[in-house]
Specification:
The complex is a heterodimer.
Chain A lengths: L12 E5 L3 H13 L3 E5 L2 H8 L7 E5 L8 H11 L4 E6 L6 H6 L6 E2 L4 H12 L8
Parallel strand pairs in A: 1-2, 1-3, 3-4, 4-5
Chain B lengths: L11 H8 L13 E5 L3 H13 L3 E5 L2 H9 L6 E5 L8 H11 L4 E6 L7 H4 L2 E4 L4 H13 L4
Parallel strand pairs in B: 1-2, 1-3, 3-4, 4-5
Helix pairs in contact in B: 2-6
The chains are: A alpha/beta, B alpha/beta.
């Protein structure tokens, strides 16, 4: 079941960073059905291009393990340093998502794969502050 | 980016491809699923955003390998727009040839900054020269889905 974001406001924009195309496609589709605007990036390098463009972003949802010049942890560190205030949620396997992620992302421990889309949507709503504004 | 709609193709190849576009069904293009294959993330983002704003469902692939994964899943893609020069195991031309061979019903638009030297109408339903405006892209997609000439 999808839950729409508040209609009166600009839909929050989420950058999904995931190198597995079918995972990226499905989670992006789910988040769009929830009412979010979703930008897709294949890896951290693409994510950096989006982050350095004039694209408005409210939250970054990134896989931890990705090919390219940096992984999800590196991307989170870059965001912490260069885009203060931008929410980031890391998604990865439990063994890799432990304490380091807690220091890097707003969510504390990263979300472990596999995850339920509804649980992810709840986490996103929490970090976008929508729950406190009367949204489901 | 938006420079308004153009009434005439940028490249002669566009004319050749469009005039050879086969007649297909007349289903409303609003619900059509478009697969965008483009390795430049900002271009892919623009294309996907504009196509979604025009009412299409859009799937994104960063290269031919990703595109084939999407197509081999159960996604009922109606039309693929692909760049030519991309990293990976094949370029857009080979991708188009593969798709044409395996999924005959999928319409194909090839986008490139270079006028093609290959027989456009054999490989794809339309060619669109880069750079293109969002309006031009949407116009091309609608034309090809309807099977009509420009």
């Amino acid at each position: 079941m999808t839950m729409p974001v508040e209609q009166s406001k600009r839909p929050s924009t989420i950058l999904v960073v995931e190198d597995e195309v079918l995972i990226r496609m499905n989670i992006s589709r789910y988040l769009r059905e929830c009412g979010y605007t979703v930008i897709e990036a294949v890896n951290a390098d693409e994510a950096l291009q989006v982050l350095q463009s004039n694209q408005i972003l409210d939250l970054v949802l990134s896989d931890v393990q990705m090919p390219g010049s940096m992984d999800g942890f590196g991307l989170a560190q870059w965001i912490r340093k260069n885009r203060e205030g931008l929410n980031i949620i890391l998604v990865g396997t439990p063994e890799r998502a432990a304490d380091t992620a807690a220091e890097l992302c707003e969510s504390g421990p990263a979300m472990a794969k596999p995850y339920e889309p509804e649980a992810l949507a709840d986490l996103i709503r929490k970090h976008l502050g929508l729950a406190t504004q009367g949204q489901r | 980016m938006s420079q308004g709609r153009k009434d005439r193709p940028d490249h002669p190849a566009e004319v050749a491809a469009m005039s050879a576009a086969p007649i297909v069904d007349n289903q409303a293009s609003r619900s059509a699923i478009i697969l965008v294959v483009e390795d430049e993330v900002l271009i892919r983002m623009m294309m996907a955003t504009e196509l979604r704003a025009a009412g299409f469902a859009v799937l994104e692939a960063a290269n031919a390998d990703e595109a084939l994964k999407v197509l081999r899943s159960s996604e009922p893609v109606d039309l693929m727009v692909t760049d030519i020069r991309m990293p990976g195991t094949m370029d857009g031309i080979r991708l188009a040839a593969s798709v044409r061979g395996m999924w005959e019903s999928i319409k194909i638009i090839i986008a490139s900054a270079h006028t093609p030297e290959w027989p456009v109408a054999v490989i794809c339903d339309a060619f669109i020269g880069k750079p293109f405006t969002p309006d031009r892209l949407i116009e091309r997609v609608r034309q090809v889905l309807k099977g009509g000439a420009p």
